[in-house]
Amino acid sequence: MTKPLPKRASVIIIGGGIQGLSVAFNLIEKGERDILVLDAGYWQGGASGRNGTLIRPGFASLAWTELFVLTVNEWKTWSKRLGENVMFTQRGYSVVSEQEKSEAMLLEGLKVQKRLGVNSRMLTRREIDDMLPAINKSRVRAVQHQPDGGVAPHHAVMKALFSFCERNGADIRYRTRITGVERTGERVSGVWVGDELVQAGCIVSCAGPNNPDIAAMASVGINGFGMRIEAMALEPTRPLIKPAIALIDSLAYFHQTSRGEVVGGTEVPERPRMSLQVDFPVMANMAKVYLEMFPQLGEVRILRHWAGQLHASSDYAPLLGEHPAVRDLWFSAGWSYGFAGAPAAGKLIAEGIIKGHIDHRMKPFALDRFEKTGPIVEGGIVLA
Question: pTM of the entire structure?
Answer without folding.
Answer: 0.95
